[in-house]
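DM from R.C. (forwarded with permission)

"hey, sorry to bug you on a friday — could you get me a structure for this? deadline for the figure draft is monday and I only need the backbone to look sensible"
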Amino acid sequence: MQHLVGLRELDAPQIRRLLDRAVELRARVKAEGAVDLLRGKNIGLVFLEPSTRTRFSFEMAARKLGADVLAMSAEGSSTSKGETLWDTAKTLRAHGADAFVLRHKYVGSPHQLARRVDVPVINAGDGINEHPTQALLDALTLQDHFGDLKGRTVAIVGDLRHSRVTRSNCFALPRLGVRVILAGPGTLCPDSMSSLGVEVRHSIDEVLEDADAVMMLRIQRERMAPGMLPSDDEYAQIYGLDMARLKRLRPGTLVMHPGPMNRGLEIASEVADSTSSVIFEQKANGVAVRMAVLAELLRPEAT
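My reply, with the result:
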């Protein structure tokens, strides 16, 4: 594997290899504190769209592997003055970047960069297209609780139209044997999403009893046209995961959310903080998964 620009390109053995490596590195970090597989390497973090959790997680992953970080964000960078992504990448490469982690608002930007540079490129989110490491950490969290995922059902609910997390999960989870059901209002869950090879429904109440895990999605107002969403109260009533709906889940069903959460909108605070929630486990698993990806791309032969 030369790059990780999306999960559409990965097969089941490649996904399982990354998950296995994440489990191994997570255990080693717990026992040793750090793993110096990438000592002497420089990771270029190019975040040209706002991010807190993903950027922090990649930085933690790089440092726990012994690498140094060259970080760049849109605010105050030369890109805000008109510099192209390619010139930004060449600058960081000249400063010794051995890999790029790119978040960009334009779909396909990591793919374009990967075709032009001679080092690995990792997609940290490109527009509404994909967010591969988020889907991998989701899969790792599910695996932690269920072991073999074959035959399990995951319902993903909410703003599916704008969710790059959804797209990556729709590529990854079925390859691990998971049945994926999408549910949301018609404006945010078009029937065309069935082209991803998953089931599409339009009510959260239709998926509760079927699911082994329910993943709620953030309402991405910043990407929406006017009129795509009813009032907050109406959305929470019709599509939100509240305590009444939580009680309808089968025992052992997991509650997930990629974050950041709009508490009281797509998910009630009581649900997010309940014993069914694995939301903060997902966040913790992000570091292990991103360590695995960096190690796999830069030191595939090392353990």
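R.C.: lifesaver. The chain has two domains: 12-130+285-298, 132-283.
me: no worries. Residues 51 and 103 are 8 Å apart (CA to CA).
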